[in-house]
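fyi for ur records
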Amino acid sequence: MSSKGTNGKRVLISFLGNINYDTRARNLYFSLLELGYEVDTLSFDWYDRPQGGPVPVTKLSKAGSSLFFYLKFALAVKLKLIFNKYDLYIASDIYNLPFLSFFAKFRSKPLFYDSRELFKYLAGLKDKQKIQSLLATVENSFIKDCDRIIVTGMMDAEVLMEDYGLTPEKFILLRNLPHKVNTITPLNLRSKYGFPEGSLVLIYQGVILKGRGLPVLLQALKKLEHCCLVIMGDGDMRGELEMMVERENLKTRVVFTGTIPQDEILSYTAAADIGCTLIENISKSYYYA
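which gave:
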């Protein structure tokens, strides 16, 4: 997708995920539009859900091996880069970095890398040393080609400076904050999900992955009989947690909403009593989260 701009500059944001459901990538997309850039995107999804917003999505199936999945993704990125030219390339994750680095250098254009996480320290790769080592090699090979590196916090920048010998002026701090909204209309979560009146509603928002503290939260919920829990999002651990909810007889007090459109999220957030973010210290990426 390409949205016309007013300053004559064309930007590509490439992200292995659905930009419409990713607050960070979506905010970047709309911010660049507001600054007058023509913004083109590459966005992917492998979940069975609606597109979720204005950014077109390329569907990728995870049927088969992980290698085959990545090869399909790599082919789509390469074709986009071969047949299009840009004034600025933004790799929104490490998976896009090698491809955008090559074409940015080939076309003598600037490259920005959104190090939204410490990718070589991802919690999900804690027990996958070969993949972790591969990502570290990729990052080490291409990060110095980046004109600027975007981080969510300066502690992440300090880790990258230490690991790769980078200098502070390379970094742009871009925090994960929502756009300002003047009016929010909260939902009635108790009515919507059949929770008892007077119950305390807890909410989790984000990807459902290992290390997010969700099993701990469910165990705590067993002892907090006056509390109910809304889990917003999707991810590889959802099925396991749903079975845990069934096993622990928590079905009347726990709801999995699936992925919620970005424009509706704050209505859920504002309706809850307590927000829960129990990040576990199982990796350096989560330690600095």
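The longest helix spans residues 66-82. thats all i got for now
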